[in-house]
Write a structure and sequence with these properties.
The chain is of the alpha/beta class. It holds the Pfam family TrkA_C.
Length: 546
């Protein structure tokens, strides 16, 4: 809206006009009755303007009566107030607009880049992945304020409507390698159609919140349709101890004889309360301890003097038989195998996926949601202790919280933990920055939707990267060896420099899991399978990949 047509500016102009008329009449009356010097209204109007603009008073000064002097003091103060108000309404916004950074509307210098439509927390991890790999990209953002913030933080951005063919052409779609549509589900379908018209050969990847709508993205022409909420919900179900699954996640197979597993130290298990050194992962079980999560913080390598308490999650790699031995020791010796009950708070895409996965096990599921819809057992607010009491979490093996708002999820976690200190709480964080808050609130396991989305996009768009476990707290990736060629893992000091652990080498399509890190020399064209946090994987990419 134009500044001159805004409600605030109109109110100010009306105030000036009303004040001027009132001051003119009052001054004209004062000159006639108090100073005994009647004059035309236009003369009084001139004096008022002289006063309000602080340019002088002409022949009327000085005034002989105290009343007129006080009147003039009031008019002078009124004029100063109007001037300052006018500066705030007109001058300050104009200067702010004139000095503000204008986001770009074209990206004519980019080639073989990725076009991201639009910016969202889900795509942040993907953008960081692109930047760490030196992969060119541009974000098409329709909101001018958001586009300006991205530009000011040195992110490549084009301000414009991503559904517009002209805007996509300004973003260089003719020269791009891929388009990622990360807006609302219906908007993404429109972006796909526009991208296909602007460049029929372009590869288009979309993210979908409602998996049922993914088919329409494919009909529109999308090459890949990703559903991170669905994947995350299924992953949460696998982390719930039930009658047919222990409190341990399914492993990630790396080759034929190596498995990477996250497992929890259960209360009452043989390992609970022992130090990592006393457990002897390598000597006793023949597995490598990659790292461990202590209260949500990942530490690699595992400190040998650190106690493995209840809920500590280990990340280990080894042969499947060896993993099974450790799995048995980590499980509770009093693990019940009767039917278990799980509470799901939030029945969106992720909650439904978790419920469907749990339905295949001998598990009773109680669903809580704020909306009354199919599959919901209790309608209410997950942040309300009375509602949680109505759900009845006593005796439940786990509570899965998949709410759309992280603030609500944090509060719901606090409520559940206060009502039942022993229940397992599994939570979805929409933004990665809220993961630690959820752990501090009492969650046992947290996974970020933004992180999962970024990993799925990276594995789909980047041809030389394969993410082997997108739904885990740790990133497991197969990457080119890069500058590791001609060196060993020990020579390159990979773990201390990046925080990653090299699990395997891939040479001529064969995965080599048994190799001596001190003597095995990587060759040009080899690939590596590494495990670590998202930050440590990006460090590896920065150090060893051009």
């Amino acid at each position: 809206m134009s500044l001159w047509r805004s409600r605030r500016a109109g109110s100010y102009l009306a105030l000036v006009a009303g004040t001027t008329v009132a001051a003119t009449l009052l001054y004209n009356y004062g000159m006639a009755t108090l100073e005994n010097d009647p004059q035309p209204l236009y003369r009084s109007l001139e004096v008022v303007f002289q006063t309000f603009t602080t340019t002088g008073y002409g022949e009327d000064a000085p005034w002989s009566t105290p009343q007129m002097n006080f009147l003039m003091i009031g008019l002078q103060l009124t004029g100063i107030g109007l001037i300052l108000t006018g500066v705030d309404i007109f001058a300050v916004p104009w200067l702010r607009s004139a000095l503000a950074t204008t986001p770009p509307t074209t990206a004519s210098d980019l080639e073989d880049h990725v076009i991201v439509c639009e910016y969202s927390p889900r795509g942040e991890a993907f953008i960081e992945e692109l930047e760490s790999r030196g992969q060119e990209y541009v974000v098409v953002e329709s909101d001018e304020g958001a586009a300006r913030e991205l530009h000011e933080t040195d992110r490549r951005v084009v301000h414009g409507d991503p559904e517009s063919i002209d805007v996509l052409e300004d973003a260089g779609i003719e020269r791009a390698r891929a388009v990622v549509a990360d807006a609302a589900d219906d908007t993404n379908a429109s972006i796909v159609l526009s991208a296909q018209e602007a460049n029929p050969e372009i590869r288009v990847v979309t993210l979908v919140e409602d998996q049922r709508l993914g088919e329409y993205h494919r009909i529109a022409g999308a090459d890949e349709v990703l559903s991170p909420r669905q994947l995350l919900g299924e992953s949460f179900a696998h982390r719930v101890p039930t009658a047919v699954t222990t409190a341990v996640d399914e492993g990630v197979e790396i080759g034929n004889d190596l498995e990477l597993v996250e497992l929890s130290i259960a209360e009452g298990s043989d390992l609970c309360g022992q130090t990592a050194d006393a457990v002897g992962l390598r000597n006793r079980f023949g597995v490598d301890g990659i790292g461990a999560w202590f209260n949500g913080d990942f530490e690699s390598p595992i400190p040998p003097d650190r106690d493995l308490e209840t809920g500590t999650r280990l990340l280990v790699a080894g042969e499947p038989d060896r993993i099974d031995e450790l799995r048995a020791e980590a499980a509770s010796t009093v693990h019940p195998f009767a039917a278990r009950r799980v509470v799901i708070a939030g029945y969106g895409e992720a909650g439904m996926a978790a419920g469907e996965a749990l339905a295949a096990t001998n598990t009773r599921v109680t669903v809580l949601d704020s909306d009354d819809k199919d599959g919901v057992d209790i309608v209410g607010d997950a942040r309300d202790p009375a509602t949680i009491d109505e759900v009845g979490i006593d005796g439940a093996s786990a509570v899965i919280i998949t709410l759309d708002d992280d603030t609500s999820a944090i509060f719901a976690t606090l409520v559940v933990r206060d009502l039942d200190p022993s229940v397992d709480i599994i939570v979805r964080a929409n933004d990665a920055e809220n993961v630690q808050k959820l752990y501090r609130a009492g969650a046992d396991y947290v996974q970020s939707l933004a992180t999962v989305s970024g990993r799925m996009l990276a594995s789909t768009v980047l041809e030389d990267e394969e993410v082997l476990a997108v739904d885990r707290q740790v990133d497991v990736v197969r990457l080119p060896a890069g500058e590791l060629a001609g060196r060993t893992v020990v020579d390159a000091d990979v773990r201390s420099r990046t925080g990653c652990t090299v699990l395997a080498a891939v040479r001529d399509g064969e995965t080599i899991t048994e190799f001596d890190p001190a003597t095995f020399v990587f060759e040009a064209g080899d690939e590596v399978v590494i495990a670590g946090t998202d930050e440590s994987v990006r460090s590896f990419e920065t150090l060893f990949l051009d």
